[in-house]
Structure formats: C-alpha cells, structure tokens
Design goal:
Elements: H1 2-12, E1 16-19, E2 29-33, E3 36-44, H2 58-63, E4 66-71, E5 76-79
Parallel strand pairs: 3-4
Antiparallel strand pairs: 1-2, 2-3, 4-5
C-alpha cells in the first residue's frame, strides 16, 4: 500500500514513475524528473518525528537510493534525511 501512495505522490510532484516488478531488491521505484533519475525505496514509518526506518544497505548508499517514509496513520509521505 505504501508504494502506491508513494507513486501517486511522485506523480503529483511531476515525476515519471516506474515500479519494481519484483518484491525484492534495493530499489522499489525509479523516477525521472527534468532528465534526472532518482532511485527510491519505500518504508513504513510509524512516527512523524522519528526517522526510524532501518539504515540503507551499502548497495543502496552506493546507488544513491533515497528512502520515502510512509506513515500509515496519517497517510503522509516524506523523504528520509540520510546520514552518510
């Protein structure tokens, strides 16, 4: 469910969106905007204040994957602030 919210959120932000067809992997969504390619992994997040999603894998860091956090209570999405 979170991925579908993220897809529509990205559409609303002007992205072309492509979803991972499998259920595994480092990336859930590939999005393109203004000629730039963005890689996203969608995570459920139970708190608006905490950035409590697990840390990105080494591969995700190498690829520049960004987490989109979805709060199922509020149905709000936000980009995670990653520590490098």
């Amino acid at each position: 469910m979170a991925e579908y919210y993220a897809i529509t959120w990205l559409w609303d932000e002007g992205f072309e969106v492509f979803q991972n067809c499998g259920c595994t992997g480092a990336i859930d969504i590939v999005a393109i905007k203004d000629g730039e390619v963005y890689l996203f992994d969608v995570k459920m997040n139970s708190s608006d204040k905490a950035n409590n999603a697990r840390a990105r894998t080494a591969l995700q860091k190498e690829l520049g994957v960004q987490y989109i956090l979805f709060n199922p209570k509020t149905r709000k999405l936000r980009l995670a602030k990653h520590k490098e």
